Amino acid sequence: QVQLVESGGGVVQPGRSLRLSCVGSGFRFSDYGMHWVRQITGKGLEWVALIWNSGNKEDYADSVKGRFTISRDNSKNTVTLQMNSLRVEDTAVYFCARVGYSATLGGMDVWGRGTTVIVSS
Amino acid sequence: EIVMTQSPLSLPVTPGEPASISCRSSQSLLHSDGKNYLEWYLQKPGQSPQLLIYLGSTRASGVPDRFSGSGSGTDFTLKISRVEAEDVGVYYCMHALQTSFTFGPGTKVDIK
């Protein structure tokens, strides 16, 4: 079945780095753009980053621009979020999600279960 | 940045009764292509969000027809024609007009 599985979360000190991965299965990964969205525990959703299906274009929320990098390897059905210079306020559950409909860059129709990042000294 | 607001923030519902959630954006989500780039998501307790509606009124695949989206420009509504117990959770609207997508604060729907 169509599935996204995130990994790479953990506890990290402020200023350090962490790399999250998301592996897709059950669909042609290279046909779909991919998002990262985060959620502070018990709070709302915040969009983080988007990468187009070919990997030739990406975009970021202002809160992470210059610190986070989204990339993908279509041969491995994987999208990655490299997070540098982490801050306490980056603590959240990070979800990857698929752009499900070509008519929109949103339309996040498949979501992973999320991976937890805790930034703490 | 486009700011999304929702009302109410909490909505107790009775199974079998209709329910409605409002979403407003700080700028128009009506694109020159005639489409409204507004989406609705539901996050059930303990689960990841799921897409209900995109382009303002198009139901995502597999979404029951008791869910409907309407509105244009800056004012949008999600309606549930007859609430079922499985519809509890937090409903979010999100704009997709441009990257730097933003979500509304969420509306928590629970059973009275």
How would you describe this structure in keywords?
heterodimer; A: 121 residues; mainly beta; seven-stranded mixed sheet; four-stranded antiparallel sheet; globular; B: 112 residues; 11 strands; 0% helix
Describe this structure as you would to a colleague.
The complex is a heterodimer of chains A (121) and B (112). Chain A has 121 residues and is mostly beta strands. In chain A, 0% of the residues lie in helices and 50% in strands. Chain A is built from no helices and eleven strands. In chain A, the strands form two sheets. In chain A, strands 2, 4, 5, 6, 9, 10 and 11 form a seven-stranded mixed sheet that branches. Chain A has a four-stranded antiparallel sheet with strand order 1-3-8-7, with no helix packed on it. The radius of gyration of chain A is 13 Å and the shape is globular. The model of chain A has no long low-confidence stretch (mean pLDDT 96). Chain B is an all-beta fold. Chain B has no helices and eleven strands. In chain B, strands 2, 4, 5, 6, 9, 10 and 11 form a seven-stranded mixed sheet that branches. In chain B, β5 and β6 form a beta hairpin. The relative contact order of chain B is 0.34. The A-B interface holds A 37, 44-47, 50, 59, 61-62, 95, 97, 100-101, 103-109, 111-114 and B 1, 35, 37, 39, 41, 43, 48-51, 54-55, 60-61, 92, 94-96, 99-106.
